[in-house]
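Q: Given only this backbone (68 positions), what sequence would you predict?
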C-alpha cells in the first residue's frame, strides 16, 4: 500500500485516519529505507527519502520478533 500511495494510486491519508495509532512493522521501515538507497538517480533518491521520512514521522514502528 505504501508504494501504491507513493505512485498516487492509494489514499494513504484515509488509511491513517482509520487506524489509531497507525503502525508499520520495523522490517517494512527497513525495506523502505533500502529503496531510498537503491534509487538510480539522485533526484529519485531525494524524492524517496522525503516520502519515506514523512511516512516514518507519522506512524508507530511495531517490532518484528519471532516467537521464542
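A: Predicted residues:
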Amino acid at each position: 500500500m505504501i508504494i501504491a500511495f507513493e505512485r498516487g494510486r492509494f489514499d494513504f491519508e484515509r488509511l491513517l485516519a482509520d487506524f489509531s495509532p497507525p503502525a508499520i512493522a520495523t522490517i517494512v521501515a527497513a525495506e523502505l529505507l533500502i529503496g531510498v538507497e537503491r534509487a538510480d538517480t539522485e533526484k529519485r533518491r531525494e524524492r524517496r527519502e522525503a516520502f519515506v521520512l514523512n511516512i516514518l514521522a507519522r506512524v508507530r514502528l511495531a517490532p518484528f520478533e519471532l516467537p521464542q
